[in-house]
Amino acid sequence: MGVVSGEMLVDGRIRDSSFQRKTGYVTQQDLHLPTATVREALSFSALLRQPQKYSREEKLAYVDTVIDLLGMQEYAEAVIGELGEGLNVEQRKRLTIGVELVARPQLLLFLDEPTSGLDSQTSWSVCDLMEKLTKSGQAILCTIHQPSASLFQRFDRLLLLARGGRTVYFGDIGKNSHVLLDYFSRNGAPDLQPGSNPAEHMLEVIGAAPNAHTDIDWPTVWRESPEYQAVQKELKRLSEHTDEKDSRTATEDNDQSAYAEFAAGFRVQIHEVTKRVFQQYWRSPSYILSKSILTSGSVSTAPSTASAVVTL
């Protein structure tokens, strides 16, 4: 199997314990509390995950900003509900992204296959949202498997990995994928057939598609390419300017809560979690009724003996 070693750097700096607090991770599954409203789900995330330097009023005001950014104003007070009864698939995906955005990720927003399981129209709408976020200054990194040709063109840059996690290409995609296709054509790959999907073509070229095979060692080709040298030069530049950037952003990164295990204090956690649990029970009358019947039935049918009391 071998051993993979190296350094994990962010902007030329060693990743520290604050990295997790400064990033957001949008999971592939849209998991939310069915009894909560859209605003309550966003507020819960904001109050527990935003840095302590922001007041409660500022955190809740930022929730309104995110609601406007996501275009969720019309159903901000709607109950999430179960899939098929409450919010639709697109609205749930927007909410999942919003839950991470309200945490104010300073560095990056990760999205795990944001278009998987979605139809073409919904996938396009999600890409519209991601493009809107990037234009607002949010850096986005997402994984995606075999997107359509039109969807593939929505992305700016590509990190293509071969089996084993080895880099095959890292750089711009270009209009109509011409930058990406030119790179592979220069290094011996067959030309893209008219009407073919560039994303699927790349998988076939590197031998990652079903029944595909290649005699070219693409990871080695990448390490010997001028594109690779350009990436290394940029990494070196970032590393050399690390000290300058650290001094310039020292005031911004002075929030010690970014290095704590939890962003919110213990009392805030207890208050918000307890509040949400009570709301969940209050909005689930069938649960309360079944528990009441079960409890009263158990008490009324139990004999009045010491052993029965212990059993209850």
From TrEMBL:
GO terms for cellular component: membrane. Residues 6-116 form the ABC transporter domain. Transmembrane segments: none annotated. InterPro entries: ABC_transporter-like_ATP-bd, ABCG_dom, P-loop_NTPase. It is a multi-pass membrane protein. GO terms for molecular function: ABC-type transporter activity; ATP binding; ATP hydrolysis activity. Keywords: ATP-binding, Membrane, Nucleotide-binding, Transmembrane, Transmembrane helix, Transport. SUPFAM superfamilies: P-loop containing nucleoside triphosphate hydrolases. Residues 145-278 form the ABC transporter family G domain. It is found in: Membrane. Belongs to the ABC transporter superfamily. ABCG family. PDR (TC 3.A.1.205) subfamily. This is Multidrug resistance protein CDR1. It comes from Colletotrichum higginsianum (strain IMI 349063). The lineage of its organism: Eukaryota, Fungi, Dikarya, Ascomycota, Pezizomycotina.
